[in-house]
Design the sequence.
């Protein structure tokens, strides 16, 4: 069986702070590459790698408390109102035009 890790409920972590933490950890882990690549290339590659690593991680935000609604008595529609009846179409007879020569 595997033991579950218990994580503390920390304050909100933004992606920016997470990116900085990951890039710092990567840069300290691979110091040998810094000498071979140079400072500028190494920093760019570490930044790209950190972005790829934290891509799937969602930001943690403080939980919102749900608002409770006050239960009121349901409204009953008044029986005096009725639905409107559909109107009938009236067709008018049109007289044919007379042709004069």
Sequence:
């Amino acid at each position: 069986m595997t033991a579950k890790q218990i994580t503390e409920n920390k304050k909100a972590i933004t992606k920016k702070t997470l990116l900085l933490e990951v890039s710092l950890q990567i840069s300290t882990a691979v110091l040998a590459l810094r000498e071979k690549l140079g400072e500028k290339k190494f920093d760019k590659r570490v930044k790209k790698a950190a972005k790829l690593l934290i891509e799937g991680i969602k930001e943690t935000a403080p939980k919102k408390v749900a608002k409770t609604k006050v239960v009121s008595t349901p409204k009953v529609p008044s029986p005096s109102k009725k639905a409107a009846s559909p109107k009938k179409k009236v067709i008018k007879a049109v007289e044919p035009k007379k042709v004069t020569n």
User: Anything to note?
Assistant: Residues 15-53 form one domain.
